[in-house]
Amino acid sequence: MFRKRTNHSLYALAIGGMLLGTPLSATAQENLVPEPFRGATADSNFTLSYDDVDMVLNQVVLETGRSSRETSGREYATTGTRILRSASGKYRLEGNRVDFFAFKNPENFEILQKVRRSLEAVPSELPLHHLSEKEQLAYWLNLYNITMIEQISKVFPESSLKKFYDGTDGNSEIWDEKVLNVAGVPLSLNDIHHKILIPKYENPLILYGLFQGIVGGPNIRGEAYTGRRVWHQLSENAKEFINSNRGTQRRDDRVFRVSTYYEANRELFPEFDEDMREHLLQYISPALERKVRSSSRMSPNIQSWYIADLQGGNRTQSSRTMGHAALLGAIEGGPSGTFSADGTGGAGHLASEWVGKFSDSSLMNLRFPVHVLEYVKKLRERNRHDRQGNVIMEEIDNSSDTTENNQ
User: Fold this and answer.
1) Of 196, 219, 286, 367, which one's alpha carbon is 20 to 30 angstroms from that of 123?
2) Distance between terminal CA atoms of the chain?
3) Can you say whether residue 204 is alpha, beta or left, with left for phi > 0 and alpha for psi between -120 and 50 degrees?
4) Which domain, by its residues, includes 213?
């Protein structure tokens, strides 16, 4: 018989102390994950850089700190301020917020799209199975969150995102639209959530890294997730959400209220009451620990679909927001040094300069450390040769050495 063979010498390279032939790890459910996203290399030294994601999130995310479980009356944004507006006093004082109004500036929105496209293209340059499970998790969370911000920015200003979740009144379903194409696989946000991350990791902590764009969901961080810190970052988010009014509330000695977000992820809590109790006890404050233990039922009925922005979907642009509209006007450490909002050239000029400097290709090069970029370039060269028909046909008989099967 005949066998198609390519030059596999590249796969024998040991880069940064990592042998690419290391067996790939897998979970019991990973066969449910689309094939290009299966597997991981446990001892991989390959990492991805997210400086661009850090820059965007640092500029548009307002971090509010841990919830004190205080409540307040209903309030509205006033002229010239960034006072939050919400329909419920239970949630108004907690949860990080995003300045979605910044992306009404077309140049800022273009920057956001460039960052998303750069993330989206990573697996086409470096197949994800070359990365560790932690690096892959950080990658998916960052892609998900940047894409979520982009999609919400398209429909902003809106005060509630409920209609975009269930597609009522002819609205697009933000979570279910196939807005991404990763390694040739069309993906929606829900595909990443339910068809990749849950079966691949089978760990409830991943839920706290998926920004839902609403007040009633887990926090968006003012920084990117990284492979080195991803589980610590998720643990921090879990503690914040579980110990907030958005995540849990005691009702009485028998019933403990939890977010509807948990019910939407029942595949991680098959025995809902028991599994939820076990999960909450890992992160709940000592003051509520006894209530969790003594409750006979978990009631998933806490929800808030109000947008997690600075004005509660307010269509009135405050003076503070107008000054912030040039998203990257104050970013330091950009591609040409330091940008400052000193009026030189105007905020629009600064954003234009950033857009021009950070092309899709340069963002991709910044995504990879030097040793990974070297490998990616070799992969590109190999793939280019393959497309040009550089294929060796080798006749194989039953008595031949079969060691190549492992290549």
Assistant:
1) 219
2) 19
3) alpha
4) 2-246+304-387
Q: Which whole-number Å values give the CA distances from 189 to 108, 120, 244, in the listed order? A: 22, 12, 25
**Residue 278: which residues within 8 A CB-CB, separation 6 or more?**
none
- Residue 406 belongs to some domain of the structure: no
Domain assignment present for residue 399? The answer is no
As a whole number of angstroms, the distance between CA 59 and CA 106 comes to 16
Contact 16, 330 (CB under 8 A): no
Domain-embedded: residue 31: yes
Residue 3 tokens, joined: 């066998």
**277-306 pLDDT, tens per residue?**
999 999 999 999 999 999 999 999 998 888
Q: What is the tens place of the pLDDT at every residue in 65-84? A: 777 666 554 544 444 444 34
Please write the tens of the pLDDT for every residue from 14-41: 233 333 333 344 555 889 999 999 999 9
DSSP H helices, 230-367, are 230-242, 260-263, 272-281, 286-294, 319-324, 346-357, 360-367
| Position 271 in a domain | no
Q: Give per-residue burial for 222-241: e unless 16+ CB within 10 Å, then b.
A: bebbbbeebbebbebbbbbb
* Side chain identity at residue 90, one-letter code: K
Alpha helices per DSSP H over 35-105: 51-60
Would you say 328 and 287 are in contact if contact means Cβ atoms under 8 Å apart?
Answer: no
Q: How many other C-beta atoms are found inside a 10 Å radius of the C-beta of residue 286? A: 6
* Number of domains the chain is built from: 1
Kindly give, in sequence order, each residue whose CB lies less than 8 Å from that of residue 143, ignoring residues fewer than 6 positions away: 116, 119, 120, 180, 182, 192
